[in-house]
Each structure stands twice: as structure tokens, then as C-alpha cells.
């Protein structure tokens, strides 16, 4: 899943935060982690589910990042569930004398997810109970194939904020500096007021929903090309920097080349690593393994011993794991 | 069909009258209408200080390791019903743990079942507070708090209303640790909710939803039967490093009264408790039906006049083992299997409907493990597979006579 077209929304908002502000994302906010220094190795590890995937130990689909160190709560697939959770995170900050007045929580979601009950539940809880919370809606025009015109009849997501008594701003999501500025003010209000603030960033999803999607099945290719030409967050920010003499086409070319190289190199490196140990299948369901999982792990052990070196796909599949499942032997 | 006709289908009539055995409680012969599930008089309740302090499995939270194995002589108890004991547990949690908060609909004034009486006044309304009317909001909020390491004690007003929170509980709370590679967890989340029938609750104030959650790996489910049990199991649930759903049988809030130790203590999770030792049949249940089961066992041994002819002598001598499951998930398979291997017969009792209920899961596991020992099919006595109906409740909730009938059938299979 990519953020093409939404880079200004994601990175612009991330840049306005402290590194210790708690972030709860939906799935299209990798830019926050990149901004915070999560690093390509960690990104690739989770996307490829290799042995370095601390985010999910290979248990979740790509882009389900998580990191206590970078204050980024682990992504889950169900949409909008993070919104009432963020209200709780904000309340915890409010109750913590060490962090009250210093930090906020930020929850990201798309305009589609904002139709979920959890959006309303989260806004109700946050607006009434208080706690420093920024609700950041990336209105990118699509929820897979569903355009915004089929998602809501009201005036976007921003119009709902005043209904909940919450300070609200709508911002040009493709203007990195506008997003940054709005976010800075939202953060100030959230922390000083110990309250929820809603930001709706208007943008456009240039990429497909995911690698399983071909968006030209439901929108004209020309529409996408037009957006890339007319309202491109990269171009707008670059032109601004160049106009100030802070950037040049040569630096642009050089950074693009080196970043592309880094990404490909990280990918190739990550591709070669094995998946985590196979017994991670059974760990971490509870803090301690209960009897049913102990027995089920033993059952898989018995099966692997009996069939694991002859039966496909098990035979070639186990070789992809760290240790090739040898912890199940004997 | 009358109760007597029901029994006569399964029992031979006996000619002799048998003198009544002395009953453990002091209240004389059974009433004319027969044994009822009179919780208040139940011998299962520990109504003296001595017996309360001897509750098996108590682990005192202030226990000093150097003072030897739990000396109880100096400890006090106080008469409490179930809601008072639950309140006492939360009081203790709030006292010991600055991060602890209690929240839900109407908890600030004391709660619709009084479980939070006085807590807001004592600990302040930033720690004990009302939420807007949204179970999914309450559950999600609790998850967020717990993810930050704060002790979140959430209340869902009736377990019939837990379903809006099902996604948050099953997809989020239960999976939080696993899906984050153990980098995050919501072990500090406890969700409490009144459950089971109350006599007049109908479809939406009587449900037993524990079965729906059994498949949510990562969750624990706990159901206490009495005030002493409720306090200890709730404190254990709050302290447990996994998210726990704590279902409180609402009919027991006022009717079950015990001498409850005033000090803080836990009782073990995932350990069933054998209340009556026996050798001919294991009866396994949890929550309110414990009292039904005990009454049924007592009635079988000592039938009232109108049932005497339907319960033969041999059955009256049956030695029946009664087990309180206490933790539904993960459940204590060891205790149950050890018991059934000895008695060779199992009867599982719960208010929840038959299909997909806790009994179905347990019966399946016990069949696997005790197959060659079993002398009778495992019997489940449950609510019927209908929604809980209002005026029909006495015929819906498994009552003493259904239990007696089922025990008799299983014993004579």
C-alpha cells in the first residue's frame, strides 16, 4: 500500500509532532515512520515478514508496522478501530503527570473509515472525556473503488467536528507547509486544552488502493495523470524550495538517485533473509502459553516430524524459516 | 407436563420411604413447593469468618514472604453481597494503582447495580467516570488506556450489550499482543459486565454471551459464583497480564451474601474449584447454576414427598461431585478430566443455549480424553436454543427439576 499523492499530508503532519507523540495509524502513514527514523531495514523486514520483523514477527500483512520506540502503535487491518483507542491513549497522557502538557496522541484515518461506527464512538468519547488528541483525516477521494461522493452526503469529514463540539480545520492536504502549520496549531490546542481537535486534509490517492487493486477499473487514467500534473505535493514543495534558493534540480536528481538505490538495496537484502522461527506461530497469544496451545504446538511438531521432510508444500516451505523449523524436531 | 410426570418417564417408582438424611444447613425440612434455587440459604456460601478465611486458593496481596505461609488469624471479614464485594475489589485496585480508572455508562452515581457506589466520590471523577453511550467506544477507549500501561476497568452495563464491542474485543484486544510481535499488549484491560438471567429480563437483560468469545484466542473469560469468589477473581483478572472479560451473574448481586475478607486477595484464574467431592457423577457448571446444581444434588439425596416415588433408593445414594469452572477461557482441563476419569459420568450445566455453548467445547475435549472411561454420554443441561423469553423464563432457564432428571438419566444410562 502506497501513499502516492498523499506525501504532504503524512509527512507534513508528522513533522509538526514531537517524536514522543503517540501515533495510531490506519495503514497509509508509513511517512510518519520514515520521518521518525524507523529506517528502511525495519520497513522491509515487516513488508517481507523476515526474521528482523519486530513489528509483527511475520504475523501480519505488509505495512502493519508498529514500534514502541518510535511511539507508533501497531497497525491493524480493521478500519477505524484505532479511533476510540486513540481517545484512550490521549486520556492516559492526560492522566500521566510526566507527559501531560508535553505530548499528544494522533490518530490517522481515511474518509471511508470515517463512516465506521468507531469514528463516531471515538469522537464521542474523546470530545466528552478530554485528553490531548488530534484526529487527522486523510480525505484522498477513494475507499478502494468507492469515491467520496458515494461515501458521504455531508460536507466531508470536517463538518462532523463541530457536531461533536470539536475544534476543526480543513486543510489543503497537498501543501506540505499548510499541513505542517495546521498540525502545529492543532497540536497546541490539543495539548493546552487537553482536548480533541479534528484536521481534515484534502488530497488525492494517486496510487491504486493496494497491489491487489487496478484503479483504472473504476477511474480514468487521465484523471490520475491530471492530478499528478496539476496538484502534485512533491512539485509544489520543490518549487517553493527552489524559489527560495534552498534546493536545486541537481540536488533533486542526486537525492532521487541515491534514495532509489538505498531502497532497492534494502529490499534485496531483506529478500534474502529467512522468515522468523516457525514456532512464533504459537507464541505471544497470551503472556504465557496455555495448555491448548502447548498441545497444539506438540501436534504440529508430531506432524512435522512425520511428514515435514517429504510432504510438499511443507518441505520447501519450512526451509524459508529461520532454523527451518528445527525447534520442532525430536 | 408436570414435574412428576417428567421424572416418571425416566425413573422406576420405589415403594419404600426412606428417612430423611440430615441436611448441612440448619433450616429443617424442605418447603412444600419443593427445593428452590434459594441462593440466600445455600450451603455453598461461606457465612462465617472462619470458613471465609479458609477459602481455598486465597493469595493475599499484602502477603509478606518472610511471615511464613499465610497466617490468617489476624484478618477480618465483613458481611458483603456480590456487588459490595466487587466494589471492594475495585476500591482496592484504585487504591493500590494510580493508573487505575473505572469507566462505563452510569458508573459515576454508583452504577445501575451499585457496583461502583462511592468510588467517584472517593477517587475523583478523572478516575471513576461516566462515558457516552457507546460500548464500542468504551471497549476501544479501554484498549487505548491499557496499551499505554494504564489499568483500565471498563463496565458494559449488561452483557447483552457487549456485541457492539465485539470487534474491539475480538479483533483488537484479543490479538493485540500477538499481532504486535509482543511489542504491545492490553493485559491491563478488564471488562466487567452483569450477565445471566435475573427472573424478568427477557431477551436483552438475561444473556450469557461467554460462548461467543471462546474462539477469541488471547482473551480470558471469568465468571464468579459468590461474593468471596467475585472479589478474588476480579482482583486476579485486573492483575492478569491478559485482557479479561469478567461476567458477573446479576441475580447474585444481592442474593448471595458471605463474610468476605476485607484485605485484598486474589483467587487463581484457570483453576476450577471442586465444591463437593463425589464418585458417581461429575457436575460441572459456573455462575448462578451452581446453586441450582447444589439444590438438585441435595434434592436427589433427599427428595420431597411428591418426588419420593420417582427417585429410587439407589439414586439417592449417588455420590455427586460438583465443580465450579470459574475461568471459562482458558479452562481447567486437568481438574475436569481427573474428575471424569474417576466418576465416569459428566453433566455440564449452563444458562446459555446449547448450540455453540461452553458445554459443547468442554464435552468435546472430555470425550477425546475420557472416551474409554465414560459410562454415559456427556450430558448438557442448558437454556433452550431460543432467545431468552420473558414470561416463559421458568421453563427456559435450567431449573432444579431438569437437573435432577438429567442426573438421574445419566446415572442410570
Report on this structure:
The complex is a heterodimer of chains A (330) and B (413). Chain A is of the alpha/beta class. In chain A, 43% of the residues lie in helices and 11% in strands. The two termini of chain A are 41 Å apart. In chain A, helix 3 (40-48) crosses helix 10. Chain A is globular. Chain A is built from 12 helices and 8 strands. In chain A, the strands form 2 sheets. In chain A, strands 2-1-3-4-8-7 form a 6-stranded parallel sheet, with helices on both faces. In chain A, strands 5-6 form a two-stranded antiparallel sheet. Chain B has 413 residues and is an alpha/beta fold. In chain B, 34% of the residues lie in helices and 17% in strands. Chain B has a 7-stranded mixed sheet, sandwiched between helices. In chain B, helix 4 (119-123) links the parallel strand 3 (101-104) and strand 4. In chain B, helix 11 (289-301) crosses helix 17. The two termini of chain B are 23 Å apart. Mean pLDDT of chain B is 91; it is low at 6-27 and 30-36. Classes of the chains: A alpha/beta (330), B alpha/beta (413). At the A-B interface, helix 4, helix 5 and helix 11 of A face helix 5, helix 6 and helix 7 of B.
Shape of chain B: globular
Could you report the average pLDDT of chain B, rounded to the nearest whole number?
Answer: 91
Oligomer kind: heterodimer
Q: How many beta-strand segments of chain B?
A: 16
> Unreliable runs of chain A, pLDDT <50, ≥5 residues?
none
**How are helices and strands ordered from N to C of chain A?**
HEHHEHEHEEEHEHEHHHHH
Radius of gyration of chain A using CA atoms only: 22 Å
Figure out the total of helices of chain A: 12
Radius of gyration of chain B: 22 Å
Strand content of chain B: 15-25%
Give the strand order, joined by hyphens, for the main sheet of chain B. 4-3-5-6-8-7-14
Structural class of chain B: alpha/beta
Amino acid at each position: 500500500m502506497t501513499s502516492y499523492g498523499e506525501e504532504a499530508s503524512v509527512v507534513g503532519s508528522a513533522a509538526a509532532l514531537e517524536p514522543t507523540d503517540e501515533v495510531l495509524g490506519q495503514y497509509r502513514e508509513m511517512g510518519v515512520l520514515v520521518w521518525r527514523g524507523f529506517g528502511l531495514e525495519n520497513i522491509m523486514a515487516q513488508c517481507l515478514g523476515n526474521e528482523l520483523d519486530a513489528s509483527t514477527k511475520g504475523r501480519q500483512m505488509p505495512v502493519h508496522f508498529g514500534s514502541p520506540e518510535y511511539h507508533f502503535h501497531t497497525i491493524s487491518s480493521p478500519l477505524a478501530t484505532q479511533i476510540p483507542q486513540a481517545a484512550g491513549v490521549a486520556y492516559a497522557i492526560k492522566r500521566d503527570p510526566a507527559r501531560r502538557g508535553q505530548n499528544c496522541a494522533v490518530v490517522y484515518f481515511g474518509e471511508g473509515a470515517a463512516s465506521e461506527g468507531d469514528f463516531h464512538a471515538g469522537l464521542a468519547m474523546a470530545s466528552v472525556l478530554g485528553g490531548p488528541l488530534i484526529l487527522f483525516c486523510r480525505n484522498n477521494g477513494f475507499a478502494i473503488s468507492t469515491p467520496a461522493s458515494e461515501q458521504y452526503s455531508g460536507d466531508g469529514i470536517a463538518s462532523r467536528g463541530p457536531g461533536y463540539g470539536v475544534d476543526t480545520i480543513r486543510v489543503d492536504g497537498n501543501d506540505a507547509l499548510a499541513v505542517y502549520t495546521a498540525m502545529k496549531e492543532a497540536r497546541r490546542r490539543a495539548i493546552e486544552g487537553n482536548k480533541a481537535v479534528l484536521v481534515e486534509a484534502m488530497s488525492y490517492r494517486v496510487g491504486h488502493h493496494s497491489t491487489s487493486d487496478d484503479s483504472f477499473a473504476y477511474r480514468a487514467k487521465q484523471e490520475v495523470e491530471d492530478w499528478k500534473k496539476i496538484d502534485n505535493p512533491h512539485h509544489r514543495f520543490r518549487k517553493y524550495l527552489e524559489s527560495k534558493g534552498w534546493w536545486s534540480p541537481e540536488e533533486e536528481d542526486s537525492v532521487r538517485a541515491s534514495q532509489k538505490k538505498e531502497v532497492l538495496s534494502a529490499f534485496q537484502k531483506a529478500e534474502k533473509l529467512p522468515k522468523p522461527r516457525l514456532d512464533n506461530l504459537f507464541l505471544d497469544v497470551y503472556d504465557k502459553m496455555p495448555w491448548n496451545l502447548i498441545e497444539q504446538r506438540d501436534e504440529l511438531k508430531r506432524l512435522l516430524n512425520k511428514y515435514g521432510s517429504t510432504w510438499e508444500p511443507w518441505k520447501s516451505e519450512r526451509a524459508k524459516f529461520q532454523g527451518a523449523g528445527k525447534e520442532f524436531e525430536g | 407436563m408436570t414435574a412428576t410426570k417428567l421424572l416418571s418417564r425416566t425413573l422406576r417408582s420405589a415403594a419404600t420411604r426412606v428417612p430423611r438424611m440430615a441436611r448441612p444447613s440448619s433450616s429443617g425440612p424442605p418447603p412444600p413447593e419443593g427445593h428452590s434455587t434459594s441462593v440466600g440459604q445455600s450451603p455453598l456460601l461461606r457465612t462465617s469468618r472462619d470458613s471465609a478465611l479458609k477459602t481455598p486458593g486465597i493469595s493475599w496481596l499484602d502477603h509478606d514472604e518472610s511471615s511464613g505461609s499465610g497466617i490468617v488469624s489476624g484478618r477480618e471479614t465483613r458481611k458483603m453481597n456480590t456487588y459490595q464485594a466487587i466494589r471492594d475489589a475495585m476500591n482496592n485496585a484504585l487504591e493500590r494503582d494510580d493508573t487505575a480508572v473505572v469507566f462505563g455508562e452510569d458508573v459515576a452515581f454508583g452504577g445501575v447495580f451499585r457496583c461502583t457506589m462511592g468510588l467517584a466520590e472517593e477517587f475523583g471523577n478523572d478516575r471513576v467516570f461516566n462515558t457516552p453511550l457507546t460500548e464500542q467506544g468504551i471497549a476501544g477507549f479501554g484498549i487505548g488506556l491499557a496499551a499505554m500501561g494504564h489499568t483500565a476497568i471498563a463496565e458494559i452495563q449488561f452483557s447483552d450489550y457487549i456485541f457492539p464491542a465485539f470487534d474491539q474485543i475480538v479483533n483488537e484486544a484479543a490479538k493485540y499482543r500477538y499481532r504486535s510481535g509482543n511489542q504491545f499488549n492490553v493485559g491491563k484491560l478488564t471488562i466487567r459486565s452483569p450477565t445471566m438471567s435475573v427472573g424478568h429480563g427477557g431477551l436483552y437483560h438475561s444473556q450469557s454471551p461467554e460462548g461467543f468469545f471462546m474462539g477469541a484466542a488471547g482473551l480470558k473469560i471469568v465468571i464468579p459464583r459468590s461474593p468471596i469468589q467475585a472479589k478474588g477473581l476480579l482482583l486476579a483478572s485486573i492483575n492478569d497480564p491478559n485482557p479479561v472479560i469478567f461476567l458477573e451473574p446479576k441475580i447474585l448481586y444481592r442474593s448471595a451474601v458471605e463474610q468476605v475478607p476485607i484485605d485484598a486477595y486474589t483467587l487463581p484464574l484457570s483453576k476450577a474449584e471442586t465444591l463437593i467431592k463425589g464418585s458417581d457423577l461429575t457436575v460441572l457448571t459456573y455462575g448462578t447454576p451452581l446453586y441450582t446444581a447444589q439444590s438438585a444434588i441435595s434434592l436427589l439425596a433427599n427428595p420431597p414427598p411428591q418426588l419420593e416415588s420417582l427417585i429410587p433408593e439407589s439414586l439417592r445414594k449417588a455420590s455427586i461431585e460438583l465443580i465450579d469452572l470459574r475461568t471459562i477461557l482458558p479452562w481447567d482441563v486437568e481438574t475436569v478430566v481427573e474428575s471424569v476419569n474417576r466418576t465416569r459420568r459428566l453433566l455440564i450445566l449452563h444458562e446459555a443455549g446449547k448450540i455453540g455453548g461452553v458445554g459443547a467445547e468442554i464435552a468435546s475435549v472430555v470425550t477425546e480424553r475420557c472416551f474409554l472411561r465414560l459410562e454415559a454420554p456427556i450430558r448438557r443441561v442448558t437454556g433452550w436454543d431460543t432467545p431468552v423469553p420473558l414470561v416463559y423464563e421458568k421453563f427456559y432457564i435450567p431449573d432444579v427439576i431438569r437437573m435432577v432428571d438429567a442426573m438421574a438419566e445419566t446415572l442410570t444410562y
